[in-house]
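CHAIN AND CONFORMATION:

***
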Amino acid sequence: MRHILLSGISHHVLSDLEHEKIKTIEIRSPHNFLSVLQTNVGDVILLTATSREDVRPGTMGLIVRIREKQVSMHRVIQKTPEYYEESEFQLARLQLEMRGHGRVRRCESNELGEATLVDADEVRSFEGR
């Protein structure tokens, strides 16, 4: 099945999601943010701790469903007597529901500036290799 992939997610977040079954995460990295923009509430996506460049057939991850999605702009101001700096950044907040484990079969799109798309199978039990 085809899934949008969010990569480089911390092991701590993934294990929390496995244990708690529902978790809200914030996405700030540009490559994952572009992928999130291509999703909708109710979509099933794949999360992995593996970096985007290292995703290959056999990469393991969590299959999750998006329960809520929020995209927002944040403004940060730093000010001292010598300078004033203002910056803005966008982030996405996703509430995710654990559905199962998945293994990448094929990476379909992994280009910079595009959503990362993979073909992945659900893994119902772990296999020894």
Notes: The mean pLDDT is 92. The chain has one domain: 2-123. The beta strands are 2-6, 22-27, 44-47, 60-79, 84-109, 117-123.
